[in-house]
């Protein structure tokens, strides 16, 4: 059938503004392709804490579990960042949601648009043609291991733990994707120091045997942080654990010239969530200057996930059209630019 | 007195070649300034394992403990990297040495040479004038916490632990350095996720009160990985924990155009070790193409540490002279270049 329930969590900062554009765009997609999208809104993050004391209210979790997919905006608020003693923080909502929905793989495509490479801090010849797919493990590792701070504030610890099964499931996704691409997987780890990294290396080496057409390479995370800047074109699929994935994918996000362009998908066995890579940028909140494209491209990944490929491609085409015609927000064009909703309207009109 | 014992650990890969140039240069410094440097060589790393089974033989540790300072080359060998089951690995030698000597602060200056910025993957206007001092905690955190892999290889963990005292001692060094510089400290952490990061934030906020002339800023490590590329000039002193420091400082090392230029100092209360940031580059071993400048500038930091400031500055002047006259190895000049020892000779002649 062509009925889909989509949970919408606008979240904090610029989240609501950019998510509104995605919903607008999905509505016109629904019209054009005769789908029925039923949007159910729910709260998460700082706003949810201020209203309910809970960054992920039970109701929100239920809405997400019952949905075919979740569209999420952004999370985080300086009020909590500057208060290390806060017991409840917005990010806990997102982390709990990822865990509860079993979203074990965070997929971040890093692509450059030739017309935008002049915005990149890197030289054109270094970045042009970059096309990387990052697979970041999302519901284990140091994010979800045991945590402890003693009551006198004398010491604290965080445990990074991985099981073989956790590595296996995301590794298969990465290798399968590589088979459809340039057939190379780079495992990023710190196997010269960490036991968990050595487990990753061992398990992934084993899985690689099932994919004889794919080349497996290893890179220490410190070296990966260098190589990402020196020569991003060397990468096809990057596979890594949660914390290294957080750092390396944010680093990679600057390559194309704007983090405001980059979408992500978080995939589990029964659920999926789509969100821009960028954060909540509280400084930009309410100003109508936030770039909606990362959110709109996240909506395109949502359409992919629902196997609505034609619609997804139409949406991407519309985004490229907007970028090519310089119909963009101020992060991409200082001189002449459009507001968040004007960019959304332009994409809607094209579709 | 002007007698100094310097332990020399050439290590693996290109370590011996570049260290030989530093010793050559230190010898001519000794002549010129009437110091007496007594060099004591010792083994560490892969070579030490192949000969003795131990990456840090007891004898090496004794030599280092009795020395006024340690000059170290590089560590690591592909034989061990590709063998996740190896029980003994070269890196363990370096980690144990850092711990045994109590080298709690790893200091990495990141500076650009205007004449070399065209080698940088980043645009000239982004990097020119970058001058960062990174303080990385070096003997705690996930590197030294409890590690475990179960015998069936079903799971593994690594514990990241920090005590307040460990944070206090390096934080003071960072603030004191900032007072002599542009008076800004940026603490890089992941306080929205980790208990240890929240402890860092709390302790460092407290210490900042002793340095009212220094501004303290906080940055999540994922954002820091972006900002380092978007606008490295915004940073003065960066303070961070062990693993984040490993990643961020290697990332930062590409800014200037060659990692072959960057020295580091590892400082404790009674000992200090000086080493280039670059690794052992086994592919380049024995070819005479390795850039000796990172090691030679590490020797300059060693002279600083011994309070031989005039000699240290002379050495830096000689290095700048070599760079300005394009008397460099092939990493810095593809068309016309000199061998590792020719560059060393040029610097010796200048002094
Ligand atoms: C908000 C934060 C907890 C989150 C993370 O670290 O996973 C964010 O940085 C991301 O990458 O989605
Ligand atoms: C060799 C390795 C263990 C080491 C580290 O991670 O500390 C190196 O990368 C460094 O930064 O000195």
Automatic annotation (TrEMBL), chains A, B:
Enzyme Commission (EC) number: 1.1.1.85
InterPro entries reported in the protein's UniProt record: IsoCit/isopropylmalate_DH_CS (IPR019818), IsoPropMal-DH-like_dom (IPR024084), Isopropylmalate_DH (IPR004429)
PROSITE patterns named in the record: IDH_IMDH
Keyword Oxidoreductase on entry: yes
Broad class of the protein's primary localization: cytoplasm
Residue numbers binding Mg(2+): 222, 246, 250
Site for Important for catalysis, residues: 143, 190
Catalytic activity: (2R,3S)-3-isopropylmalate + NAD(+) = 4-methyl-2-oxopentanoate + CO2 + NADH
Pathway given in the UniProt record: Amino-acid biosynthesis; L-leucine biosynthesis; L-leucine from 3-methyl-2-oxobutanoate: step 3/4
Cofactor: Mn(2+); Mg(2+)
Domain of life according to the entry: Bacteria
Function field: Catalyzes the oxidation of 3-carboxy-2-hydroxy-4-methylpentanoate (3-isopropylmalate) to 3-carboxy-4-methyl-2-oxopentanoate. The product decarboxylates to 4-methyl-2 oxopentanoate.
Name of this protein: 3-isopropylmalate dehydrogenase
């Amino acid at each position: 059938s062509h009925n889909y329930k989509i949970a919408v969590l606008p979240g904090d900062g610029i989240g609501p503004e950019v998510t509104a554009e995605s919903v607008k765009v999905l509505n016109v997609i629904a019209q054009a392709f005769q789908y029925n999208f039923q949007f159910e809104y729910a709260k998460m993050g700082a706003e949810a804490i201020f209203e309910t004391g809970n960054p992920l209210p039970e109701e929100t979790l239920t809405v997400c579990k019952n949905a075919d997919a979740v569209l999420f905006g952004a999370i985080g608020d300086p009020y909590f960042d500057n208060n290390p003693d806060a017991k409840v923080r917005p990010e806990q909502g997102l982390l709990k949601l990822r865990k509860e929905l079993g979203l074990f793989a965070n997929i971040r495509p890093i692509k450059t648009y030739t017309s935008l490479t002049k915005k990149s801090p890197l030289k054109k010849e270094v970045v042009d043609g970059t096309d990387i797919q990052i697979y970041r493990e999302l519901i284990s590792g140091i994010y979800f291991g045991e945590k402890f701070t003693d009551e006198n504030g004398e010491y604290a610890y965080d445990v990074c733990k991985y099981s073989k099964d956790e590595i296996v499931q995301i590794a298969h996704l990465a290798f399968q994707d590589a088979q459809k691409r340039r057939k190379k997987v780079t495992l990023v780890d710190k196997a010269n120091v960490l036991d968990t990294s050595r487990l990753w290396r061992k398990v992934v080496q084993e899985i690689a045997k099932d994919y004889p057409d794919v080349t497996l390479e290893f890179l220490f995370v410190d070296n990966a942080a260098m190589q990402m800047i020196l020569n991003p074109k060397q990468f096809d699929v990057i596979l890594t654990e949660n914390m290294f994935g957080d750092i390396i994918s944010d680093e990679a996000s600057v390559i194309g010239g704007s983090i405001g362009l980059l979408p992500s998908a978080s995939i589990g066995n029964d659920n999926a969530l789509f969100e821009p890579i960028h954060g909540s940028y509280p400084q930009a909140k309410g100003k109508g200057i936030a770039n909606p494209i990362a959110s709109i491209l996240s909506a395109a990944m949502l359409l992919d996930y629902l196997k609505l490929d034609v619609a997804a491609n139409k949406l991407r085409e519309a985004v490229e059209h907007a970028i090519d015609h310089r119909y963009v927000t101020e992060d991409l064009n200082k001189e002449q630019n459009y507001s968040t909703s004007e960019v959304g309207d332009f994409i809607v009109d094209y579709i």
